[in-house]
From TrEMBL:
Origin species: Flintibacter faecis
GO MF assignments: 3'-5' DNA helicase activity; ATP binding; DNA binding; hydrolase activity
Native organism taxonomy: Bacteria, Bacillati, Bacillota, Clostridia, Eubacteriales
InterPro entries: ATP-dep_DNA_helicase_RecG, DEAD/DEAH_box_helicase_dom, Helicase_ATP-bd, Helicase_C-like, NA-bd_OB-fold, P-loop_NTPase, RecG/Mfd, RecG_dom3_C
Name this protein carries in UniProt: ATP-dependent DNA helicase RecG
Gene responsible for this protein: recG
Domain Helicase ATP-binding per the UniProt entry, residue ranges: 272-438
Gene3D superfamilies named in the record: 5' to 3' exonuclease, C-terminal subdomain (1.10.150.20), Nucleic acid-binding proteins (2.40.50.140), P-loop containing nucleotide triphosphate hydrolases (3.40.50.300)
Amino acid sequence: MTVTPDTPLTQFPGVGEVRAKKLSHLGLNTAGDLLTYYPRDYEDRRQVYAIRQAPEGVRVCVRAMVAQRPRLSRIRKGLDLVQVPVVDQGGTLHLAFFNQSYVERALLPGEDYVFYGQVERQGNRLSMTNPVFERADRQDVTGRIVPVYPLTAGISGHLLAGLVRQALPCARGLADTLPQSIRQAHHLAAAEFALTAIHFPPDDRALDLARRRLAFEELFYLAVGLAFLKRRRTTLSTGCPIPALPVEQFAALLPFTPTDAQRRTMEEAARDMACGRPMNRLVQGDVGSGKTVVAAYAGWLAVQGGFQAAMMAPTEVLAEQHFRTLSALLSPAGVRVGLLTGAMTAAQKRKVHADLAAGDIDFVVGTHALLSQGVAFRRLALIITDEQHRFGVEQRSALAEKSAAGGMPSPHVLVMSATPIPRTLALILYGDLDVSVIDQLPPRRTPISTYVIREDKRQRMYQFVRRQVGEGRQVYIVCPAVEEDPEAALPGEESPALTLKAVKSYAQRLQREVFPDLTVDILHGKMRPREKDAAMRAFSQGKTQVLVATTVIEVGVDVPNATLMIIENADRFGLSQLHQLRGRVGRGEHPSFCVLLTATRNPDSMARLRTLASTTDGFQISREDLKLRGPGDFFGRRQHGLPQMKLSDLAADMPLLYEAQAAAEELLSRDPELSETENRPVLARVRRLFEDTGNSLN
Ligand code: ADP
Ligand code: MG
């Protein structure tokens, strides 16, 4: 069989219809797919040890002879055990195989095998549980570094490795798509070498070279693709120019002076909107840095220019809060601010729809309801999304289409995010967006003191709640669940003390047993929008003293008089999420506190919580979070609308990311259209990469 990258796997020996289907589930349809199906790990089986020489506690190869017939016993229903001693000149190793009854016959007494597993010692007795093995005279994987692939039922690692090996010859025929000049400048291995060594590395050095080359390649094509998208936007599409008015004029409407960082960001946005091309800007600022004001300025500019603006928020509570803030700020300047949420009555919605279509609302704030069918604008020129990581790329473009339907050019887009990520990473992750960073908090914020505590301090904590309320302040208590669910014991949970705190029952108990004299209210996502609104309003008006809530209050809610944030089962939340929650306090002039309650014994969880207690720097926290969880989970899989990275870990490969980005910029400055012969394959690869993401590059 001559293998080309397009050879279907059904032509491989041993791959019938059933297997082909299973392989297809792994995204494997052709020989070429196999080449880039990278191992998720490796097993080092180069060194083969004698029994007594084998290091303990790590997986190693041990060569030994089967000393007697293996013994199969049934321990209980559904649990078989095969036991057999194996020997060499120096010692005996006792093997145990659970639920692999075939081993009873597979291991022949008197034969030599190489066993790969972990040697354990109890006194003088050496044992190994569930090793894999092969006959010593028919070694296939022993002596090598063996790839470990992500698998699915019915497809073994052995089978996959065999298929990859058969597919490898087609790597030889592959033209290297990375231009020679770039390979040389960045000391990158050739494609064929890299593709071979990533699967079957002869040694560690070869593996490093292969990884580096392939990870660089991924990042490089991504960077080139994004640069293309951005250029297309900045050179090809036309936006509606909105005249920039001085920040000073707007600042006169504010009860405070904008920080330098806010001012800079406002000016950047104004410049974008004035230049005749559509703005596409991400405003990044830690919680409390004052992003809303920037949005207000941009909206104000649009309205002064004779256009409409829309701002989309991820929750009703947040949309309503923005509506109140923007109305208070902009109504005096003659801006007609409107609100559209799913919670409104049909009649109310109809009225807003009509006003939007007629141009009688200038600046509308809303939830996803803004995307619904009945919504049409008269002259929408600016779209703002708050807390962007909650919205997919598609939703932003759905709103943009509403503006196109009105015969308008591409609208300006302003995206606001409180997820602080390193600037360069933002450039990559948010693709073709320009980035402004508000790296400064408004003055006179008192820092938030954060404490990690255990159950034994609960009573003292309640006293502290009482003291805060006594001073006129308000308190949030966040729980991980809405209702108590006796079935919902978490894996590894035994003690009832570890059960999740649930909003409803906990709030009842607090009111009854702990704070009978205080006003305790609840807020969670399962409440009717109107109830939520009422609860939030009562809290922001100071009528509620203790608000027991789920993470619905995570984003954006602004009640400066709230000074204490208590988070129950804090180990259940991600670091960035905890940071967001904590950001709900420390918004006024009073000293603020965050208390993280936990029952965890897990040292990693404790370390995470301590990180939070030790810093309020959102960038540092997100770096930790990124390290712990990886970018996929961090941003919500598939949400960022970017191609899936296979090999590169954006957090770990930072230096390589910079290098790839620099290389992409350099290449595009030399050959902006990628029209030179050497660079044409790059263009083809980039096109293919972005095909699946809906970001067509044509
Ligand atoms: P976020 O960036 O988290 O969305 P907000 O826009 O909600 O932050 O602002 C947080 C609080 O800080 C609000 O009460 C807002 O009025 C206030 N604020 C914003 N900018 C300033 C400023 N320059 N000086 C004083 N207070 C400010
Ligand atoms: Mg906000």
